[in-house]
Amino acid sequence: MTDDHPTPPDDETATDDETATDDETVADAVPTRAPVAGITPERPVVVLGGGPAGLTAGYLLAKQGHPVIVLESTDQVGGIARTEVRDGYRFDLGGHRFFTKVKEVDQLWHEIMKEEFLKRPRKSRIYYNNKFFEYPLDGMDVIRKLGPIELVRCFVSYLWAAIKPKGPEDTFEQWVSNRFGKRLFTIFFKTYSEKLWGVPTSEIRSEFAAQRIKGLSFFSAAKSAFFGNKGNKIKSLISEFNYPRFGPGQMWEQMTDDIRAHGGEVRMNAPVTRLRIEGGRVVELVAGGETLTPSHVISSLPLRTTVGIADPEAPVDVRDAARGLRYRDFLTVALVIDSPELFPDNWIYIHQPGVNVLRIQNFRSWSEWMVPNDTDTSLGMEYFCFEGDETWNMSDDDLVAMASREIEQLGLARSRDVKFGFAVRVHKAYPMYDVEYPERVATIRGWLEGIENLTQVGRNGLHRYNNSDHSMLTAMRAVDNILLGTKHDIWAVNAESVYHEEDVADEQPYREAPETPAMEQPLASER
Fold this sequence. Notes:
The chain is α/β, with parallel strands linked by helices. The chain has 16 helices and 20 strands.
């Protein structure tokens, strides 16, 4: 995802709006290939993890008549893309737009969802100083909302920065302030970025700003705001997207049903606690107290976990590399409010200081079927944090109280109108790219390449910020390698994808990456 504005990691599966349908039903599908040598009911393909990548692998294998068992550690499929349900209210964790340039993924989505895949309009805005700003910025809207006094302050601040820029440009704060002025930096960059990354903007690298805001200056931003973004299509700002009628969880639940209908298994509450490796192969694994003998293993487990459950232990350098992997986590506080409509947006970005919430999802605007009546609004208040920090460790009651207080502080709803709420913590939501992560991943990858029947897929499986479409594509390529003998480099799927406009590695944001509480946890106990 590349924007001229530093938006949050939306977990939006980026794409064209082109779609291709497949009307084949589960009942009509038949195995299309002969059994592959080594895959038998006694030695099935075992898939670790019931998120988008794991379920995709399980579905494709089962559909083609191959014995497969998908193991999910919790009681719900979908991973971080699941849908939480309370009393008929449905909550999407993060807001998942379904659009992709990868046609085979798009075809699979439509094959699974059929008429339950809805085309939805997109609307999102920036919320600052109790006002909604159109996104992308519109010149007249900005003038009207900021007002003449604030506009003069912003322009004077810009002129001062242009005449006397501060240097050297070592930090995000210095880099942005020199190009936009301190005032605009404070309004549209500072608060949001600090909540997103968990450190002051003085601790975020200037190179990160240069990549995320490349080619943008005060005048180019003003030109775009007043005259549009002609000739420079911003791909994440699509006007509509696909969305399952009852939220993204509906897709993973349907995929689970289809796997079972094709003869495959999906086992819930079956955490994998041991991978026994002999002669460069996984010869057995233990999950939910049961021992399985796999022909092949496709794993979407976090790299930390895969390393931690290996038997015998992975080499010391591999375990050290796994301990050094970092993640940015977040939690959603779901609120049901006694009011039919608060704002029409799918979500809003909160740039307002004085509150901790970063982004607010409005689930009725995603799909009216997410709310079981016409009188309530259900919101997802999103807070970015590190697993084990102060926010993460707050009690659910305190989180609901904070979210209720902040929704009123923002002037969007009254806290007394909150009918109920609950908190959902999302572990390992965003693999962090710090200075040392490429070397650490390379060390782990080198060890994994010595295990011939084990393939890592998905976002956390590769420690790569893949969106759902690329997570699913890694699973597709892994299945091809097993069934067709192809030699796809799973680690390069995202890098080679048409989703990327430029062959440039993502810059990591931190001048000095924070040591997070979760890094101290034993590898094998990782979720």
